[in-house]
Design a protein that fits this description.
This protein is mostly helical and 719 residues long. The protein is 72% helix and 4% strand. A six-stranded parallel sheet has the order 3-2-1-4-5-6, sandwiched between helices. It is globular and about 80 Å long.
Length: 719
């Protein structure tokens, strides 16, 4: 028996080896090769990398700041010079082995590529790939930080690999333009109006208090009042591009502190023209005249309001007809060109009026958000926005001068941390004054506290006017760049604040407080934050649609809050709870509770106390859906239908059906099902059936409307 068993095992091993030999071996790829070096799956390696990074950072800062670190700084400078010299000698020895004729051809081609900017483009692309990949693998690393460090490595003050820095800066400004254009597309005038308290109230308070704090500290350091005020105004600005990008990367744009951050940043963009007009006045003979300064401020305010009003009125009148005519052509590339023209044209228009390009792009996006073309427009600009915004971050990193940083390291680091502490304290005071909780104020403060790109322009104007020396300007600019680079790390620390400031009041701390959601208007109420409610909330958050979720499970509420979602503990069927989450100003409600009785109770309460709120509800079956319709629901979706259709579509795909045939089959089944629901609705007097038109006349009328707008050719064939 033992011999037979050994023989059988040997045959199985030989069979396995044969199968293994016949199986095609996977081909290696650059991604697999890179994963050996850049992948850190184990927690042990992550902790080791974090500890090593912190130790190196502390050692570097100590060497830069402490008086005894002069030898370290000299050694670092000498090492850098030696490495550069060695690389140069090695390159010359390699080129000397190439025949002279071939070398001249290569030198001529390299010269033409450099003149055309092709070399700079290749260097920027390679550096962005390399730096972002490395930094993203570090625990807590952010692509923004990778772009900033990559720019510092190739900037004119380090390796000098970029020859046309000014040209890169001009192109990089378009990244900020497209970012604000995209933000405008995702908002609406109604939602902007609901944030007016934050924009004009908290935004103005932040600018005034930050300017006052900065000017006071500058005066205490020995500066006169005019240059101190300029420094305070310049440091009051924050980086719109960096803050909003980090918010988007972390999925916090739709959170409460995300909306507050956006409001403050938008007000800062509105005040750019005021600051730029004040700088020459403070340098001129009228710097002590309050009348002259107030007159200039009034002029700037009128100019800003008039420009915004003209753009909004004219844009509303002409954009929709223009886009409809272009959509009728059926040429996607023409539609993309029109979008680029509108975004860049409006930006240049506002810049010519003394406002920021970012503000013009935001207004253009806000206008197109009201049209039926906004989804297509958002898709068209996505490639431009991501690439150019990364280029902008790299140009900011190029402004880091290691020689100035080393020679004035103590002053620069003190200014950087003083700036962060001061503006964070200002937000901690301003937020609660306008109804923002302390935790949300502090989390918003970590995005507002770093300096911004407008500080460079402000201090440049001040240096040209003779208010500030270039030595002071260079040091302050480096401090601002360092704070911008720290934004992703500060965002990580901000997310930890909810654990530090966590209240141990049990369920009470999870309930909505009176007045806590007064800033919301036109939002969505999600009743039930289980599996379905969580998916709906994530989708709304990605589209920057404000919502408030309610659940009677403390575990579900804590899970939502751990992801910075506005989830509260409370019974959605209670009028007091609905009032606390702003149901009177809500646009609609989605009910996704587990039991049919709970769903019915919430629908009834909403219909009784807030009849203007449209209610969409998940039904257990058709019979339950009819009861919910009678209770006041606008549309009911049976919970078994769509999951069944998704599974059926997957099975049909396995049966070698084409995607088009699958879409037709599923659509026909769904349409038949809706017709059945329509028949039930006619018998019961309700509106069961997704709240969508189901008769052919209404469907044909809808298609006719799309045809008039030129959208039929843009609609996917499956639809």
């Amino acid at each position: 028996k033992k011999d037979k068993k050994d023989k059988k095992d040997k045959e199985e091993e030989e069979s396995a080896e044969t199968v293994k030999a016949k199986a095609p071996s996977p081909t290696s790829s650059s991604k697999q090769f890179a994963s050996k070096w850049f992948t850190s799956d184990t927690e042990k390696f992550s902790n080791l990398a974090t500890g090593a990074g912190l130790a190196l950072a502390v050692a570097f800062l100590a060497g830069m700041i402490l008086p005894g670190g002069a030898k370290f700084r000299a050694a670092l400078s000498h090492t850098g010079a030696s490495v550069t010299s060695t690389i140069d000698k090695g390159w010359k020895s390699i080129t000397s082995m190439i025949p002279e004729s071939e070398r001249k051809i290569a030198e001529h081609a390299a010269h033409e590529a450099e003149e055309a900017g092709l070399t700079d483009a290749l260097v920027l692309l390679f550096t962005s790939i390399f730096a972002v990949t490395l930094v993203s693998k570090i625990p807590g690393g952010s692509p923004v930080l990778g772009f900033l460090l990559g720019g510092a490595m190739i900037g004119p003050y380090t390796t000098g690999l970029i020859g046309h820095v000014e040209g890169a800066k001009v192109l990089a400004e378009f990244g900020v333009v497209f970012l604000l254009f995209n933000i405008g597309l995702e908002l609406s005038l109604e939602r902007l109006q609901s944030m007016a308290k934050y924009i004009f109230g908290m935004g103005s308070a932040q600018m005034l208090m930050s300017t006052l704090v900065g000017a006071t500290i500058a005066c205490a350091c020995g500066l006169a009042v005019p240059p101190a005020v300029v420094i305070g105004m310049g440091l009051a600005f924050s980086s719109t591009a960096v803050a909003l990008q980090v918010l988007q990367d972390r999925g916090e744009t739709g959170s409460r502190h995300g909306r507050a951050t956006f409001s403050v940043l938008l007000f800062q963009d509105l005040t750019v023209v005021l600051v730029f007009m004040l700088v020459p006045l403070l340098a001129g003979p009228d710097s002590g005249s309050i009348t002259a300064i107030c007159g200039s401020l009034a002029k700037a305010i009128v100019k800003t309001v008039a420009a915004i009003g003209v753009i909004m009125v004219s844009g509303r009148a002409i954009l929709r007809p223009i886009y409809r005519r272009i959509a009728n052509l059926g040429k996607a590339e023409v539609l993309t060109a029109t979008t680029l023209f509108v975004a860049l044209g409006t930006s240049l228009l506002t810049q010519s009026l003394g406002l920021s390009m970012a503000l013009g792009a935001f207004l253009a996006g806000l206008l197109l958000a009201e049209t039926e073309f906004h989804l297509q427009v958002e898709s068209d600009i996505a490639p431009f926005r991501g690439l150019l915004l990364g280029l902008f971050f790299m140009t900011v990193g190029m402004q880091i001068d290691p020689s100035v940083l080393m020679s004035n390291s103590f002053n620069i680091i003190v200014m950087a941390f003083g700036l962060l502490a001061g503006k964070l304290g200002v937000m901690a005071v301003c937020g609660p004054l306008f109804g923002l909780p302390l935790l949300a104020s502090l989390r918003s403060g970590v995005y507002v506290a770093p300096g911004g790109e407008f500080a460079f322009v402000t201090f440049g104007l001040a240096a040209s006017a003779g208010l500030l020396t270039m030595d002071v300007v260079n040091q302050i600019n480096l401090a601002v760049v360092l704070t911008m680079a720290l934004t992703p790390l500060l965002a990580n620390l901000g997310s930890k604040l909810k654990d530090v400031l966590k209240q141990d009041d049990g369920v009470v701390s999870l309930q909505a407080k009176e007045g806590e959601n007064d800033d919301l208007s036109g939002h969505v109420i999600v009743a039930g934050y289980g599996r379905v409610g969580r998916i709906i909330g994530d989708l709304l958050n990605e589209q920057l649609i404000p919502f408030v979720a309610l659940d009677i499970s403390a575990d579900n509420v804590n899970a939502g809050r751990s992801n910075d979602m506005p989830v509260y503990f409370g019974d959605a069927g209670a009028e007091t709870v609905l009032h606390a989450v702003g149901a009177a100003k809500a646009s609609c409600a989605v009910v996704t509770l587990d039991t049919a009785e709970s769903n019915y109770r919430v629908v009834y309460a909403l219909q009784k106390h807030y009849p203007d709120v449209k209610v969409y509800v998940r039904a257990k079956d058709v019979a339950n859906g009819l009861l919910l319709e009678k209770a006041g629901a606008k549309a009911v979706v049976p919970e078994t239908l769509e999951p069944s259709l998704q599974l059926a579509a997957a099975v049909l795909g396995e049966m070698d059906m084409s995607n088009e045939d699958i879409s037709i089959a599923v659509d026909n089944f769904r349409r038949t099902h809706i017709q059945d629901l329509k028949q039930l609705q006619q018998n019961s007097g309700g509106g069961l059936g997704y709240g969508l038109p189901t008769d052919m006349e209404t469907l044909q009328a809808t298609m006719d409307e799309l045809d008039e707008g030129g959208l039929v050719d843009l609609v996917p064939k499956a639809v």
